[in-house]
Amino acid sequence: MNALDVTLWVVAPYVALTIFVLGHVWRYRYDKFGWTTRSSQMYESRLLRIGSPLFHFGILVVALGHVGGLVIPKSWTEAVGVSEHAYHLTAVVFGTVAGICTVGGLAILVYRRRTVGPVFTATTRNDKLMYALLALTIVLGLAATVVANIVGGGYDYRTTISPWFRSVFYLQPDGEPMAGAPILFKLHALSALVLFSVWPFTRLVHMLTAPVGYLTRPYIVYRSRDDQAGSRPPRRGWEPAGRP
Amino acid sequence: MRVMAQLAMVMNLDKCIGCHTCSVTCKQAWTNRAGTEYVWFNNVETRPGQGYPRTYEDQDKWKGGWELNRRGRLQLKAGGRLKKLLTIFANPLMPSIGDYYEPWTYDYDRLFSAPVTEDTPVARPRSLITGEPTKIKWSANWDDDLAGAPELAPADPVLRKVSDQVKLEFERTFMFYLPRICEHCLNPSCVASCPSGAMYKRSEDGIVLVDQDRCRGWRMCVTGCPYKKVYFNHRTGKAEKCTFCYPRVEVGIPTVCSETCVGRLRYIGLILYDADRVAEAASVRDEKALYEAQKSVMLDPHDPQVIAAARAAGIPEDWLEAARRSPIHKLIFDFGVALPLHPEYRTMPMVWYIPPLSPVVDVLRETGHDGERAGNLFGAIETLRIPIGYLAELFTAGDPEPVRAALRRLAAMRSFMRGINLGGERDESIPAAVGLKPEEIEEMYRLLAIAPYAERYVIPNAHAEEGARLEELATGCSLDYEGGPGMGGPFGEASGLPAPVAVENFHALKERQATDDLDRASELRGRVNLLNWDGKGAPDGLFPKRKDKS
Ligand code: SF4
Ligand code: SF4
């Protein structure tokens, strides 16, 4: 491993991870009001109704696939009797279908952003950067899968990329396996790292507050005025009396 | 019994002149910001008409409110929790800006900058959404005063329910105004629809608010509200709605719309209700029984048992006193003239209406009868099918009886009081015919016709012990304004901390005070501070400051 590899596969992941976590904490504390999907459905819904579910459901499957491929070690799946071939087949089929949905959805959404006047006007520079990085990462990911598996006859990233990915979280980073991965996978990983480091500062933050709690909470929410004494917590020394 | 207090409103439709003052002052106070151009927390509709947004009452199309499922349990008409989450990426039932209208401004600058020509320069309309020149095709009250009614009114969902021959009888039609704000429902389907739990009903006074810090822009509340009174701020990506002017009512002054109402037709007061029985009452099977069911949830503030339970629930004494003096309770129960708007949506709305007698009086007058005589009025109320049917579709899910009863009482008040005012003769048979005592009619007359300020608005102060920090409570609508403290954070507009209401007011006030000449008046952004105007004198900022005393 040369210095470049160490920078890319050992230093950069931690930098991205730190920005991702601290960025979200900071954003949540400082900018709750800006934490929104900023939906543009009011302006246009015909294209959105095709593109948005296609993209979102696609990316959810893709995300699940990443968990399956990166987080779960190969030895585990084999222990429960899933052969490399079976795993590979499922991964490629699901991955490609979901990937194509995602890219198709994204294409529709980008087209909509560009061509529908009001949506375009509501697009900030921040959004444009986010879209570019997101599209790049997704396209590289799909390309890597397609090139490696279909054209190239298969690449077992579970012996190289996955161990690297996990090693980062074990805090024993090992860039070695990643340094040998095909270039498309490397580019995909790098662009993802960049995406993660801008993530907390874009509207992608809405993902982190996906409202799954809705499934279990009571329908009607009551809140008392003193739930929240003001729009911000009292400053030190200004706490109201009678509270421990 | 779990007693809760609810601030409620009643509007006396007979007195509404359709001047839109309430809408304009409300807008000036709350929604004169970018992104809320099309947002009218208060709007005034001409009925028959399509309403705002267009045909919002057509719940087959918009699926707002609640319905009963096969097992007779309440469920959101737009679908349950899972369906909500699955359609979160593109809400199929969300009105588009076209269903409201495309807000616009005019190219006023052209009037000054145009070169000298033969023709008068024209300020062309420009869309506030795209910034491009636009054609104005619709607005919040496009069909005002039945404008275009022969074409537009047949699409009125209420009218379609009433009768097919209405179209034929259109020349002899009737008309009245319906001012609408959020109903601050007892069973709010907007709150139930919000996936993030950002919307809530305040347990002290029942005001329904959107927590701007928790709203994530999932847009489900817009679909959930059958009255379409939650709006989506398309610039900030957050939902906003009528706040019942909570900073005002907390200190005991009425909402801006009530304060400025030209007809003095709005009443504000407390209602005590049994929160444990709301769901049960909202799920009675027969839609026509919902009006009575909702009444049965409301408690009698004079009943010692209720008082004891209310004390146990921590409702302070001054609030109980206010509930006993509440004009709302009187109008709903003692006089029996106020009715809920669309109880069939099962949200238990808390802005009620006194149905207008004027369509009936108008018909009588047009046919050459004395529109003030009890006999004539009673007869007409029995026989006039169309106005009564229409009002019944609005207020009692189609049951004409409560509407007739309310109108009979209004008619009785009219002719009884006319007798007194003209001849001094008290025809006691008139009150008896509607089941009221003469003194009751006179009390009702005092409340409806003379309507002294302190009797129209019985609003208890928020707990004194909460003191000054109440004014910092910015859980509701954010009042950021362009260039203000909350706008233009690092993530584009409206990011960063929201400005607490008091801070915003403070900024607006300071800005006005610091401006010493008219040259800079344009920088005031035309803000007149109505939010903290108490109804006396002229509101701050309405007139420019005098230059000097001399
Ligand atoms: S009227 Fe108001 S409280 Fe009722 S559902 Fe609509 S927004 Fe919610
Ligand atoms: S201000 Fe009063 S009279 Fe005028 S439209 Fe509004 S409710 Fe009607």
TrEMBL record, chain A:
Listed GO MF terms: electron transfer activity; heme binding; metal ion binding; nitrate reductase activity
* Any GO CC annotation of this UniProt entry: plasma membrane
Q: Which cofactor does it need?
A: Mo-bis(molybdopterin guanine dinucleotide); heme b
| InterPro entries the record matches | Heme-iron_electron_transfer, NarG-like_domain, NarG-like_sf, Nitrate_red_gam
Q: Name the residues that bind heme b 2.
A: H66
Q: Cross-referenced PANTHER family, in alphabetical order?
A: NITRATE REDUCTASE PRIVATE CHAPERONE, REDOX ENZYME MATURATION PROTEIN REMP FAMILY (PTHR30598), RESPIRATORY NITRATE REDUCTASE 1 GAMMA CHAIN (PTHR30598:SF3)
Q: What is this protein called?
A: Nitrate reductase-like protein NarX
Q: Supply the source organism for this entry.
A: Microbispora oryzae
UniProtKB/TrEMBL annotation, chain B:
Q: This protein is called what?
A: Nitrate reductase subunit beta
Query: EC number(s) for this protein?
Result: 1.7.99.4
Any one GO molecular-function label of the UniProt entry: 4 iron, 4 sulfur cluster binding
Q: Which domain of life is it from?
A: Bacteria
Which ranges of the sequence are coiled-coil? none
What biological-process GO terms show up in the record?
anaerobic respiration; nitrate metabolic process
Q: What is its main location?
A: other
The enzyme class is oxidoreductase
InterPro entries assigned to the protein according to its UniProt record, in alphabetical order: 4Fe4S_Fe-S-bd, Nitr_red_bet_C, Nitr_red_bet_C_sf, NO3_Rdtase_bsu
Q: Which GO terms describe its cellular component?
A: cell envelope; membrane; nitrate reductase complex
Task: Identify the gene encoding this protein.
Answer: narH
